[in-house]
Design goal:
358 residues; single chain; two-stranded antiparallel ribbon; elongated; eight-stranded mixed β-sheet; alpha+beta
């Protein structure tokens, strides 16, 4: 029987806490440290790094979950997001890992993670611009196997334990069908013969002693998915609020008056704000080239449908741009018609006045 000699389970919960966080203020308010740069152990180029490293804090935790002590960390990103990470040591037979993953997934950690974020926000409130904890949350689970009782090459490990690994990633204790196993394990990623990464839509498994960078990329992508969902929801809300203006008849404007002035300004600011936010998130971690971590990034991006989310956001930003242009054109046309009427009245006045004077 194959045993996990050393490993860990990590539950990640991403939250949006505001528009922006001043990381230098966070480090001044609380004991924290910047996330270490990604290593060059796997030929990582210099440009594969955080553009602005997030701050990492260790949080107090007095609760024991799953009958095991748990470590809790918070990673604060400058674009207004926080990732809460719960970590448990793994040392058990591999055959028991599906049962452990199912228990972990069934534990109500989201409520506790939200409480952790709320307490953290109170402590770093001066560092947050426009603080507001979103109702949205994105969770992701990572199972790290550092060493096995009997070392196996990645190819053999996957071949011998396909069913078990698929069950772990789907939080299931029943054997999955061959088609489900194929879907879950369809994108194995390795760099050496002795390492393996398997990614699915809500969980990943890492078989590697040098797992730190891979775990960081997975955590960042979970935050990126949360921010994509958050931006999409905010744009839906704003577009719905402005839809009624299109059907509303424009009041007759005074030439120097600008109807919808506040709305037009809000639309312009909204488009710029969320375009900049999307750009900051996309540029937060640079992954360029066909290299190991870039392949991990690409595989998870496909699982998360991040490109589809980005396309939806771009489409909604275009809708906002069209709303802005439509309202601006409508106001310009109405004001132009008003000015034309004033000119006609003035001309008529000039024509009629000589007759009146007689």
């Amino acid at each position: 029987m194959t045993h996990i000699f050393q490993g860990q389970a990590v539950a990640l919960f991403a939250f949006d806490i505001g528009y922006e966080v001043a990381l230098e203020k966070v480090s001044a308010l609380l004991s924290s440290m910047p996330a270490p740069p990604l290593s060059r152990k796997k030929q990582t180029p210099n440009y594969l790094q955080y553009t602005k490293p997030p701050q990492v804090l260790t949080l107090e935790n007095t609760v024991t979950l799953l009958d095991q002590p748990v470590q809790v960390q918070a990673t604060v990103f400058d674009f207004g997001a926080v990732s809460i990470a719960y970590r448990w040591a793994l040392k058990l037979p591999l055959a028991q890992l599906p049962s452990f993953s199912q228990r972990l997934y069934g534990t109500n950690l989201e409520a506790q993670a939200r409480e952790q974020v709320q307490r953290l926000m109170e402590k770093i409130h001066p560092a947050i611009e426009r603080p507001e904890l979103s109702v949205l949350v994105e969770d992701y689970y990572v199972f790290v196997i550092e060493t096995l009782g009997e070392p196996l090459k990645a190819e053999n490990f996957l071949a011998q334990h396909r069913t078990t690994l698929a069950q772990v990633l789907r939080f299931d204790t029943q054997p999955l069908s061959s088609s489900q196993c194929e879907e879950v394990l369809s994108q194995p990623i390795s760099y050496y013969e002795t390492d393996l990464v398997l990614v699915d839509w809500n969980a990943a498994l890492i078989y590697d002693r040098d797992y730190f960078d891979t775990l960081n990329v997975l955590e960042f992508l979970n935050v990126e998915l949360l921010e994509a969902r958050y931006i999409d929801a905010q744009l839906d809300k704003r577009i719905g609020a402005y839809e009624g203006l299109i059907k509303r008849r424009l009041e007759w404007p005074i030439p120097l008056r600008t109807p919808y002035r506040q709305t037009i300004e809000e639309l312009a600011e909204l488009r710029i704000e969320y375009s900049l936010l999307s750009e900051r998130i996309d540029n937060a971690l640079k992954l360029i080239g066909d290299i190991y971590l870039a392949r991990v990034h690409t595989a998870v991006t496909e699982r998360f449908y991040l490109r589809e989310w980005e396309a939806a956001i771009a489409q909604k930003l275009d809708i906002i741009a069209n709303l802005y242009q439509l309202l601006t054109d409508r106001v310009s046309a109405a004001q132009g018609q008003t000015l034309e009427l004033v000119i006609i009245l003035l001309i008529l006045f000039e024509i009629i006045m000589p007759f009146i004077r007689r």
